[in-house]
Hints:
The chain has 6 helices and 6 strands; from the N terminus they run E-E-E-H-E-E-E-H-H-H-H-H. It is α+β, with helices and mostly antiparallel strands. Strands 1, 2, 3, 4, 5 and 6 form a 6-stranded mixed β-sheet that branches. It starts with 19 loop residues before the first strand and ends with a helix. InterPro entries: 2Fe-2S-bd, 2Fe-2S-bd_dom_sf, 2Fe-2S_ferredoxin-like_sf, 2Fe-2S_ferredoxin-type, 2Fe2S_fd_BS, Aldehyde_Oxdr_Iron-Sulfur, Beta-grasp_dom_sf. Keywords: 2Fe-2S, Iron, Iron-sulfur, Metal-binding, Oxidoreductase.
Amino acid sequence: MAPVIRHSTGVGFCTPGAQAETAEQPTAASGKHSSETRRITLTVNGRQHDLQVAPNAVLLDVLREQLNLFGTKKGCDHGQCGACTVHVNGRSVNSCLMLACMQEGAEIVTIEGLAESAGFELGHHPVQDAFLAHDAYQCGYCTAGQMMTAAAIINDDSIDGDEVSLREAMSGNICRCGAYKNILDAVQSARGQMRGGE
């Protein structure tokens, strides 16, 4: 399984190229100016979406503003809190640091598609059930990102199931309410269930 990657930079350029279109947008100074957009196809939660995006649009904003997938949260917008965590090709990444137009051809999974993508078409992913059972949330703002990271960790054979290893692997996700003990209990519980009690 692909390793968990934290704080992916998503550095790069999206060249509009032949598919570029011009959208007129008003400005206070001149009344109008043109900005280029690019038509892209994103595969999110197993479904393809044809979208028109700006070259500098980050994946987080496209997921929320164009696809109405509000489970992925905008926290710090700097890749430091983990609230925007999604899976891209099986890896846990910060969607606020990734340009949307660089994700063509990738398999993107958000919290809305976590259960189905893992083969749990009816009901919840075991991580979701474990977070509920262990009361591993308070305000809930970080919960989706915590769950996405936890699901990736469980599938990563290079990460041991001991407390120190799991704390380190989850360290890119901040819980401002301080529910870390319950979150760790939930991750260990789901890991035990999914990996046969390891």
